[in-house]
Amino acid sequence: MSAAHEQGHQTPTAKGSPATALMTPPPPSLPSLPGHPKVDLGERSAPPNATARPWSADPYTDALRTGRGPLYLRRSDGWLLPLEVERWCAEADAADREVLRRCEGAVLDVGCGPGRLVTALAAQGRRALGIDISEAAVAHTVRLGGQALFRSVFEPLPGEGRWDTALLIDGNVGIGGNPHALLRRMSQLLAPDGLLIAETVPVDVDERVQVHVADGRGASGTDFPWARLGTPALLRHARRAGWRPNGQWAAGGRSFLALRNRRTSSAAEPPNSTAVTSSQRDRNPSPDRPVADL
Fold first, then answer.
1. Total structural domains in the chain?
2. Higher model confidence: residue 225 or residue 220?
3. Host domain of residue 12
4. pLDDT tens digit string along 87-135?
5. Are 168 and 197 in contact (CB under 8 A)?
6. Residue 200 forms beta bridges with which residues?
7. Ranges 4-18, 55-69, 122-136: which has the least confidence
8. Which residue, of 58, 94, 141, 248, has the greatest Cβ tally within 10 A?
9. pTM for the whole thing?
């Protein structure tokens, strides 16, 4: 549940297919799939400004290390949202597998966390890349055999405008606390008519909050903006942004919505440089500057 930062823009190495990059240690090339040539992975580079990232420091890192909670998003008024660390660190469950069954082509998992979806796709021989702002999450994904990049969704990414499917699972539709900015960015990353699968709150809610990660025992991270969206709210935002509904379903007590990108490329549109995104949740040390000029 998060995504991260790295120096420089990784240029896609094959026109028409997303590139992947940035592992430690560098793994072999990703397998070729029809329509997606083989791509070699680049070398890891140290992230600049690597301080005060709410998903990179304790207690989130500690929870990933142990594979269990308790872990919460805590609002300033004391409201707590439990985070399902044990499920994130386990293998993909039946609800996850239904999401993976619906994925098409090359898959970008935004906020991949410890990597259960990326590694499940890799085990099926499918092309997938996770991005996350937590070094611990990226390292965990790589140890499991998945490909993961330490970078924020709002920073330059490999294969922009050519991903077939993008995932916003485990609450990641709340990234940055600005649904419009996030949907716009996802449209830039996906190919025309590409598929976005998002997990929504299983109630009708549309809210923006300031939260921090807490373990319920006194340890906490820095504040960052977040959003919580039910399916009706996400549909409203998506339609205004030019997305087309492509199905909705529930499984395992969780709710999901599939959306189709516009049929013409949005790559020529300027990025939303005024959106402050909190690391994909507040990786930007200054609240007055955008996370990245893409």
1. 1
2. 225
3. 1-294
4. 999 999 999 999 999 999 999 999 999 999 999 999 999 999 999 999 9
5. yes
6. 255
7. 4-18
8. 141
9. 0.76
Q: Cα–Cα distance between 267 and 287 in angstroms, integer?
A: 26
Average pLDDT of span 232-236:
98
The pLDDT score that the predictor gives to residue 1 is: 55
3-state secondary structure the chain: CCCCCCCCCCCCCCCCCCCCCCECCCCCCCCCECCECCCCCCECCCCCCCCCCCCCCCCHHHHHHHCCCCCEEEECCCCEEECCHHHHHCCCCHHHHHHHHHCCCCEEEECCCCCHHHHHHHHCCCCEEEEECCHHHHHHHHHCCCCEEECCCCCCCCCCCCEEEEEECCCHHHECCCHHHHHHHHHHHEEEEEEEEEEEECCCCEEEEEEEEECCCCCECCCEEEEEEEHHHHHHHHHHCCCEEEEEEEECCEEEEEEECCCCCCCCCCCCCCCCCECECCCCCCCCCCCCCC
Res. 234: pLDDT tops 50: yes
Which CATH number belongs to the domain containing residue 131 in this structure?
Answer: 3.40.50.150
Q: Strand pairing partners for 213?
A: 73
For residue 115, give Cα distances in angstroms to 14, 90, 251: 25, 9, 20
- In whole angstroms, what is the distance from residue 86 CA to residue 58 CA? 17
